[in-house]
Design a protein that fits this description.
The chain has helices spanning about 5-10, 55-70, 85-90, 105-120, 130-140, 160-170, and strands at about 15-20, 30-35, 40-50, 70-80, 100, 125, 140-145, 150. By secondary structure, the chain is an alpha/beta fold. The protein has a single domain (about 5-170), classed as Nucleotidyltransferase, domain 5 (2-Layer Sandwich). Strand 1 (about 15-20) and strand 2 form a beta hairpin. The longest helix has 16 residues, at about 105-120.
Amino acid sequence: MPNSSPTKLLDSSGLYWLGVDLGKRVDYSVIAVVAKKTDQVKLVYYKRWPLETPYSSVIGSIRVIIDKLKQVQKVLVDQTGVGEYIVEDMQKGGIPNVEGITLTLPVKQEILGHLKQLMQTRLFTYPFDVNLTSELNVERFELTKTGQVQFSHPEGTHDDILWAVALAVYATRAGASGSMIPVKRSDSR
């Protein structure tokens, strides 16, 4: 699945959501595409670029995917670092349904919590992929003094595919208005 041609893998008749994790020197840029039918979400494609890939190449690939699929409901982009500029560039460039999200600790907890919930209830599936499986298994979490969960990965590993996939899955939660639907939290205190 990784680095395959999206035009060969994707069916232009479904509904799709994209998650984008941007990187350049230390982290990779990754685009993930998920399809949703009823409540079932499935990873159908992802691409991870080599380090130092220009953002224009990533934006160009997003445009190709959107042109092919025609039914992209949302493109959710991590705008934590340089992403805000890239999101604005995509919006000005005519890429539809682009939304930036800043990954603060509570937002990261919300996004990965949603992915975990869908995986546990078998509402999110993905074809076996060694890179994604590895990133899912090595991601660490630690409870901070403020009670928030902080995520990290061991030195020498990456979590860029994980975040792109998690963003794409999270984007599927959007209601008809395009606004995010809040996750109900259980209060176990």
